[in-house]
Amino acid sequence: MTDSAPTAVVERFIDHLRTVTDSDAAVGLLAEDVVYENSWLPTVRGRERVRKLFQALLRIGTHVEMHIHAISADGPTVLTERTDVLQWGRLRVQFWICGRFDVHDGQIVLWREYYDPLVILAATLRGLLGTVVPAARAKPPSAA
Known about the structure:
globular, alpha+beta
């Protein structure tokens, strides 16, 4: 039997996202009517639409890393503080992000990501520089 505690569900979800090739396992932890809100991007509603988003990321060759620095829960709400990495070939974009997940009956019903768009811009510029000057690439955060 799998642990359905909110924090355990979110940790499993993030583990599956770390290997985007296992997106079906990640999607399996989402409620059918999940709401995915990402700062500055349109809201995605429904498990199948999130699945299509993951499939699109796979098609363009996206590699994902998610490094959790802190995770805590208050009832069904789980907050994460992370460093996320999106990589396409030599382009590595690494940035700080905060996530909120609401979990009911072992499924994520709300997934909301918060970040500063200037941080994303700076990370993208650093990533672009790193494609020509490897020493400029962001290094993965050290383990906490």
